[in-house]
Amino acid sequence: MNTLQNFRIFTTAILAAVALTAASPAAPAQGHEGHGHGSGTASASQDLGTAAAFDRNGRLWAVSKETEGRDQYVALRSSEDMGKTWTAPRRIQKAPEPIAARGEARPHIAFGNKDEIYITYTSTVAMPHIGDIRFVRSTDGGQTFSAPVTVHANRDFIVHSFESIVVDRDGRIYIAWIDSRDAEKAKKRQERYAGSGVYYAVSSDQGATFKGDYKISDHSCECCRIGLALNLQDKPVALWRHVFAPNIRDHALAELQPDGVMPAPVRVTFDDWRIDACPHHGPSLAYTADGTRHQVWFNGKEGDGGGVQYAAAKTDGTISKPVPLGSAQASHADVAAQGKQVAIVWKQFDGQSTAIVSRISEDGGNTWKESELARTEGESDKPYLATAPTGLVLVWRTQKEGIRVVPVGRGKA
Description:
Blueprint: H1 3-23, E1 51-54, E2 60-68, E3 71-79, E4 90-91, E5 108-111, E6 117-126, E7 130-138, E8 149-150, E9 160-167, E10 173-179, H2 181-188, E11 196-203, E12 211-220, E13 227-230, E14 236-244, E15 248-255, E16 266-267, E17 284-287, E18 293-299, E19 307-313, E20 323-324, E21 330-338, E22 341-349, E23 354-361, E24 369-376, E25 384-388, E26 391-398, E27 402-407
Antiparallel strand pairs: 1-2, 2-3, 3-4, 5-6, 6-7, 7-8, 9-10, 10-11, 11-12, 13-14, 14-15, 15-16, 17-18, 18-19, 19-20, 21-22, 22-23, 23-24, 25-26, 26-27
């Protein structure tokens, strides 16, 4: 059994166990994040899932989970100095509810055209991922927040989880998630249904209402995050791990429409990885100024082509040969782009500590420079890339150091 196979089995088993633990409201985190200023340092048992975004003025906002006893909340904080100091974490809900914030699930934050603050999260009410996609907004710069609402019209006691959010230039909000309604229907009919479905909803009134429960596709992987980004035409594009017949866990892509009329998904990875399990390892995508799509994903197939992969797709649809990233221990890559700058980051464990390694291109992906951005010896979240006015930034929450903010590429200090 080679190194990659060992790592794939280890990663799948650990993440599956973590996801099951995170989904249960009966198993509260023992760590308590206080209300003082600081970087949000967490205890070893606390869920570390954190997302961040910059507003138009260059202020960085981060959302994460806060636990007090058995009560759970989404906490919001901000920084005006690239993470050197933070405001005290503020709870955005008045009443506690279960919050998914580890593994592939985490709260998310995005901004509207007038710096409206939009926050989504999965409220998981039963194991393993049964719950609802929740949405909270502020239209006054974070002074007040609306009461949480459930995004989807479907209220069945089923999986609604692993949401992603993006806002287009017209201010429309798109929220996509993994949904098991069709799998449950097939089960009742005693029919086979591979995986789950992918659905989305749209708001054209700053989050006051949502239309949708629009289906993107049947047969997604059950526990992998959805990559969501705007293309050069300002259309939201979703990338997810799809279950191709008979049980191939490759990736599909589709452009979302505001009216829910969907084109057929397009297959965009061809690893032919056959595994009857969810690897808890979703993809990411971004677009450079010339319209090129940059995508990263994980493939646990044995032999050449395994591990974290990167490829670029031109506007004519041609896709470059996948490039493996890092060592056999590389995992959970993220990609972002700004103009011609492309940044890829991933976790890499060497047996003693975990590093965040980056590949940066300043010319649209023609040439690359690889470097280590950060390292920790304790538990850590996945690396997360955010777009600042001055360039791309790594946001990484660790058990020991808290929320770390590291400029990459041109903006690197």
